[in-house]
Design a protein that fits this description.
The chain is α/β, with parallel strands linked by helices. It has one domain: NAD(P)-binding Rossmann-like Domain (Rossmann fold, 3-Layer(aba) Sandwich), CATH 3.40.50.720. The protein has four helices and three strands. Strands 1-2-3 form a three-stranded parallel beta sheet. Helix 2 links the parallel strand 1 and strand 2 (39-42). The chain is globular and about 40 Å long.
Amino acid sequence: MVQILERLADRSAKIVVIGQGYVGLPVAIRASQVGFADVLGFDVSSERVNALQAGNSFVGDVSDAELNAALSAGYRPTNDPDDLAA
């Protein structure tokens, strides 16, 4: 438990957000903005993931500029369940 808390405190934990819709995408982007370098956004929709990977946000609360900054900082949208493994 201590190791998890330390990894959260120093922002080295891998953050996984399941679902990249109107709730999940802003959560994933915020995790990236506060300094987590390994943020995985999982969604079953390949169309949604492809749009996010291209830097195109479909959520009004997340601008394309915010999305692209997160992508540059390590945010990774995916629909591959194998990516969820630590």
